[in-house]
Predict the structure.
Amino acid sequence: MSQEKKVLVPSHPYEAGDKYGLLSVFEPGTRILPTGFQIGPKFRSLPVDIMFEKDVAVTLRDGVTIYVDVLRPVRTEKVPVIVAWSPYGKSQGTARSVTSLFAMIGLDNGIVSGLEKFEGPDPAYWCVQGYAICNPDPRGIAHSEGDSAMFGRQEGQDCHDLIEWLAVQDWCTGKVAMSGTSYLTISQWFTAAEQPPHLTAINPWEGLSDAYRDLVMRGGMPDLGFAERLQRNYAGKGRREEIVAEAERYPLVNDLWEDKIARFDRITVPAYIVASYSNTLHTAGTFCAWRRIASKEKWLRIHDTQEWPDYYEEANVEDLRRFLDHYLKGEDNGWEQTPRVRYSILDLEGSDRVNQPASEFPPEGVASTKYYLEGRSRTLILDVPSEEATAAYDAESNPGLVSFTIRFDEETVMAGYPKVRLWVEAKGADDMDLFVLVQKLDAHGTHLQQFTVPNQGAMMQDLTERGASVLRYKGSNGRLRVSARHLDETLSTDSVPAHSFDRVEKLKPGEIVDVEIDLFPIGLVFYPGEQLRLVISAQNALGAIMPAVRDYTPQNSGQHVIHTGGPYASYLQLPIKAM
């Protein structure tokens, strides 16, 4: 049924050239790239000879032919292979869009060879270590046949077929892994759920796992700016799936959207998952997958930067190699002794605590603690206010928000899942788009923030002032359209509420309703005298996810009223770690 609901339109034209990378011309064949080979002056030269099999045809179960590049060591012994699956062209590592993106965020293009897929593993490193890399163009992309699909079982099945084809090649040991960030992570959730027999391990490095809740309708709001941008990558000969049109046509969860939610209970392979608190596109989905996948052998590392610098950091690449060597080569290298969780505690003042070991997340010794909103003093307190009070704002005014603060007398560490439960009322409207932000303030009340990328110059300051939220961390955030407040009782927990998004419940005049809103997981320390500020707003203070992405315009009017105290005990729940 979900196939019938898909909206398909002509794909964007694919024309070989600089736009799609230096190797975008269709040239089936095999050659050796010698030691010292450099694809361009910006890029790293090869430390070893590499066998380059270009535009190799692979036939999928329905007869569709896709084309892949395979880069592998020039040696006689068999090697395992790592797959980098995404709709981004397999030669896009040298595309102008990628090199300029790296330059913008302050990454030297020389850290990679340009032979890697954008956001994927670099053959210049992995071939030295005895691995092959497979960069596919999925169905409908570039020269591959068929109509492209965006997320869901179709992609999982197609990658399943590629994995099984790779496993029986005469150069392959039969062991296959997947690695990569962003879309290259998303595809891992859906592929692993198909359980290809030769998929041995996965390495999801920040990626959403529910296209409805994490991408197009977060909090029940049709925030489609990034989806619009993502669709530009679907260039080829056939048709492409128009996910923006699907979101507009089907605003409630149905079988089309169910198909684009990872089937976590079917993911059983060993997994090394990497996450951050700050990625406004991927954080929620990565942590959700970590909690819900069925893999008994799974590890989580929570870093304190952004996915691209973290993925290519030498120490992190070596860490990943230990994981893959253990599972794909059978090496007894002590990987199994690695703490199941390594988390970060941010302080936003230059002294983050990283690689904190734990057996779970939230770590041991964390207790969910309620801080109640007090409407008169605009403070957060530990006891329910005895008297009812309200705090209100005009939803169309500037600033259109209310906030509540608490000052900590002693060092306070938070690690886990925050949420808010609010009693709200709309005056002059039948709905509310609510945005929630937890900020850290220093002892003088200044909002503390932190860049997640190396470039912190004037241009980056400008880009992230009211947008590009992935590149500067401003606090844990959440959002909800109040008419979408119905909880999914099967998915919700006390720490992480989840909404069904299968109905619309508008507000009646004078009606006061309670809503639960999940906030991004948090790892944050407050020193004595520092403050926490809870902001409830009619606007998204973080702006769009990335530069040049259309920001969402909230559907707000009238007045928003937050009720506190007495029978309306609105609160912020925080994961406080025992000291």
User: Anything to note?
Assistant: Residues 153-167 form the longest helix (15 residues). The CA atoms of residues 73 and 127 lie 5 Å apart. The first strand starts at residue 8 and ends at 10.
